[in-house]
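Quick one: structure tokens for this chain, please?
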Amino acid sequence: MSSLSDRFDPEKIEKPLYQAWLDSGAFKPDPKSTKKPFTLIMPPPNVTGVLHIGHALTMTIEDVIVRHRRMQGFNTLWVPGTDHAGIATQMVVERDIQKKENKTKHDLGREEFLKRVWAWKEESQGTILSQLRTIGCSADWSRLAFTLDEGPAKAVRETFFRLYKDGLVSKETAMIQWCPRCRTALSDLEVKFGEQNGHLWKIRYRLKKDPSQALIVATTRPETLLADTAVAIHPDDERFEAFRGQEVIVPLVDRVIPIIQDTYVDREFGTGALKITPGHDPNDYEIGKKHKLPLLQLFDDQAAINETGGKYKGLTREAARKKIVQDLTDQGLLEGETAHRHNVGQCDRCKTNVEPRVSQQWFVDAAVLAAPAIEAVETGKIKILPKEWEKTYFEWMRNIRPWCVSRQLWWGHRIPVWYCGKCAETIVAVDDPTVCPKCQAKELVQDPDVLDTWFSSGLWPFSTLGWPDKTLDLKTFYPTNVMETGFDILFFWVARMIMLGLRMTGEVPFHTVYLHPMVRDEYGQKMSKTKGNVKDPLEIIQVQGADSLRMYFCLNAYHGRDVRVTESGLEGSRNFVNKLWNAARFVLMRFEGVSKEHIKREDPFNQWIWTALQETKQEVSTALAEYRFYEAAQLLYHFTWDTYCSRFIEITKAPEQMAWRQAEKDSTALQVLEELLRLLHPIMPFVTEEIWGKLPVKPESKLLINAPFPVMDPKRVFKEGKEQVEGLFAVVDAIRTQRGIYDISPALEMTAVVVGAEKVIAFLREQAGLLKSMARLSVVEFKEALPDRKSYVMVAPRPGVQVFLVRKELGEVEIALEKMKKDAAALKQAIDRARIKLASPDFVSNAPAEVVAGVKDQCADMESKFRTIETYLKENA
């Protein structure tokens, strides 16, 4: 055995350790194994991406899950992969070509452009995969998948074919959301609505019958008047009685259009008269169909005015608006203009304002697919955690709209539809057809569009395992166990996986959905390059090591709360890693000569540490099984730092203990360390693996990654020994607290008197030497009663035992007591506020369960502190 170095150097050890794991085959499961399988499919990061802070959180949590299950003996598979990210990747490559060659994709042609994208993918994918390894991802890289690989591509075609055959996918003319920058249709989920500053223009639409009169129409988009086909009023609006049944002239283009009546019109908005542009507004489109109005397309695919706009042709939306407003003003047709904030949709990818547009697109009947997906969650076949997200899931799924799945891109899964040039037959097939099945003609043209990226990633849990083929992987590892991802893609991805999984395989794709929180900066702000508050996980790892970042994530991954990344928090996690390292270094130096385990079972301190370890093992196992990573991390943090390092290790250094806690006499400290390393490994794999390699006595596993996860051993639970030692610590902590209250230097030794029945204080009397050294006492006396209370201040650490300190050694006692009274009053106010909040039905019903539980725990903690202070003041008044 070689000893540990003076300090933990992650940069030096992490890469060799990761390579050792790879070489050992630890990441690879055996599909023929009889062990119970556990499967997790990695949410595929965009192939063009780099490891950002959100990825780092996702991969940390998933690796904790996977390492834990692997150590529990499951046949564990974590499938890695990347997503082709249709719009995002095409945008990146188009910009690169434009910058370097001053060419567009159309200059290159589809075939050459796709060659460039594939080359880009090969280079970019290596970057993100390398970075995933940096954080310690123990995925089976031999099963690396890409959404455009042959296997997933076959699954996509099979799914489209089945949906078409079942009448659930069809080509329809409908109003869609169009991105003029990406030049493609978008699904509803890819459009983000938010308020923008704008204006409300009031425009005069002259009556055809009497042009001296006009109907005043209010609009936020004056440029679309060029495609108006009606003006609508509410049938019950008496203000417009004289206008019913008449026609008006569209300003600037002199088109005559009818005044129609419809209850959709909001009489309180604007003037109460609404211009109807069926070609460029979803609501107007529905009104147009209802009233059989003409539909005019005003914009081309880049949102510039087309021929319909006459003299305005070629102008952008913004330029056309400016020109039209000026022309309306010049002709006396602009009645007024006011500032107005309104909701505007933007492309979620490029942030360009979308343009509602009527177009022929492929749609999936999502409502039919949603019904069994709703039932799966309602019946508990799929469990969503945190549970409050189930309500959001149901609301969205029960109001789901048709899913537009076609995209006017070149990069992606080409829609498996062909059109016969001779008889116009539509052919949908899994394999490329060579002739038309109807007329045998060979003039077949494939649909130029590709499928929405989420269509292929919706098949991810089973397409990565070989479906639609009946592979051994599919038989062994499907359905998967858990889908871990961010709550922001619950509908983008999770819901679609459930819908398509049930439809294609007849089984749920996974049994549990765990939605992790979002990562924000220390002020709770979303990270962005614009704000300059982005935290680069790779920089953090380079400075502090992967284990520090992983531990920080786990400590802060509370249900229902954002993870706030702070410098002080990251430093605290790094200090924890160093604490473990230094404790291990001390223990390994002490027990370098150990060749086998030796435990002095009758020693109460051994009994205490073993009991505390069993309790921790049980609680950590439960927390990890229930995806409460923050709880597991906190339990391990406090056991490691407070119980093992600050208590037990320090006790072994005491003169009374040093004599017999040597190599072959008692190896408890070493054995507890060995189990602690196994407990910590899923969260902090690198530092624990490095220490494990230096242990002189350990289980058969050469590598910690393959060692069994510790389980509670009832034979090592010693209730009496635990109570005795905790009683000693309670006395020590009480005396240390007094030092803090009265600002007594740790170097100044004090006098203490311990009062209680002999059978209660017998253990304290036996450990008098240890008590003196831990509490920095010069004298400790044991009595059954204290005769003179005026000379002492009492501390009450536990029932049956009273501890007194000499009053004159404490200095200004009265001043300290007054301060404690103020502290008690402040605590009482905080307790009252917490109780009011907990008594509020709105808070208890609407706040996340974890937040309510947190307030309850905080209130209980404050109440305990208040009682302690109250008792102290009463005893020492």
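The radius of gyration is 35 Å.
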